[in-house]
């Protein structure tokens, strides 16, 4: 059952009673997102946190030269949102798009805030999820500032092994911060050296 | 009184009773950190969240060439920690050092977790603080991926106006991702163009 996907993630961190689960079903909204459809577009105001049930989302911005730059991927089991736009009601800089046909649960910020009154355990789950996102972003920043493109690619392959072949290669190139041409040459060299297939 | 610094930040987000405040005083530990002293060193395991009462901390890593790379600054009123090391008990990649003589409150992860049982409102405060850190890091990543060094410097001046003159310039150069020489030339040009003093 589709709700099991989110309950599984939650019960990794907190315990949920039968009543909690029934309650959670009432505060999230299921949505199918076709490949290349948007959950959030630049200049909109974010209203929801998204939990990825299946598929994969990517968050990107369009730079001053009109080039898309991938900030992060959110595969199955991950949460994503523009927290700045959600908290401060500012217009977002980001786009959140489905990389393939995907399914998500949408949780509005007001439902999130109300839910912790009804089910205080959820606050621990949300806090832990946000803290894990913080860990991911600090590591990503560290990769960008301190690692070579090759190291960043090998890290990507390790962290997102399911995405390496499935995601358009130009998105991965953008994520690791190189041009598609450089990326293609780099992968060829890695194959020649037997590092990657 | 020194505790007012942390209560002020907390009451921006939650309400605290007199009893809550007395309780919070028992779970944080005051510490003075001299300039250039460390709160966390690479390969240690992080035990605390740090709240900056006065002064400023910087988080940096040392890259494979032995060069320090500044990940972030944490001025007065900010929290900082290596959340990855705290949550997963892994050895940290980061160094957290005082830029000038500073004062912090230390909050252990176990005290943080226990405190929300005693004072559930605190969970909202912690969650909101972590979410704001997430906003900061996503914006920082966006700056690094999509902006020029000049834009990054001007953003730094806007966000951290108190630090611009006070912090060693080589740290700011590292933060915006350029060499001290490039940084010096860039600032000279900005002054000549009347953008900055």
Contiguous uncertain segments of 5+ residues of chain A = none
Say how many strands of chain A there are: 8
> Would you give the CATH topology of the domain at 4-123 in chain A?
Jelly Rolls
Helix content of chain A: 40-55%
CATH superfamily of the domain at 4-123 in chain A: Jelly Rolls
What oligomeric state do the depicted chains represent? homodimer
What strand order characterises the main sheet of chain A?
1-8-3-6
Alpha carbon gap, first and last residue of chain A = 36 Å
Query: Structural class, from secondary structure content of chain A?
Result: alpha+beta
Strand proportion of chain A, as a percent range, falls in: 15-25%
The largest contact between protein chains, plus residue counts on each side, is: A-B, 34 and 34 residues
Net shape of chain A:
globular
> What is the helix/strand order of chain A?
HHEEEEEEHEEHHHHH
Task: Supply the CATH class of the domain at 4-123 in chain A.
Answer: Mainly Beta
Key descriptive features of the protein:
homodimer, 197 residues, alpha+beta, Jelly Rolls, four-stranded antiparallel sheet, 8 helices, 8 strands
Structure in words:
The structure is a homodimer of 197-residue chains. By secondary structure, chain A is an alpha+beta fold. Chain A has a domain at 4-123: Jelly Rolls. Chain A has eight helices and eight strands. Chain A has helices spanning 4-11, 18-27, 83-88, 109-118, 121-146, 149-159, 169-176, 180-192, and strands at 28-33, 38-40, 48-54, 56-62, 68-75, 79-80, 95-98, 102-108. In chain A, the strands form two sheets. Chain A has a four-stranded antiparallel beta sheet with strand order 1-8-3-6. The first copy, chain A, is globular. The mean pLDDT of chain A is 93. Chain A binds chain B through residues 61, 63-64, 69, 71, 82-84, 87, 93-94, 116, 120, 123-124, 126-128, 130-135, 137-142, 144-146, 177, and chain B through 61, 63-64, 69, 71, 82-84, 87, 93-94, 116, 120, 123-124, 126-128, 130-135, 137-142, 144-146, 177.
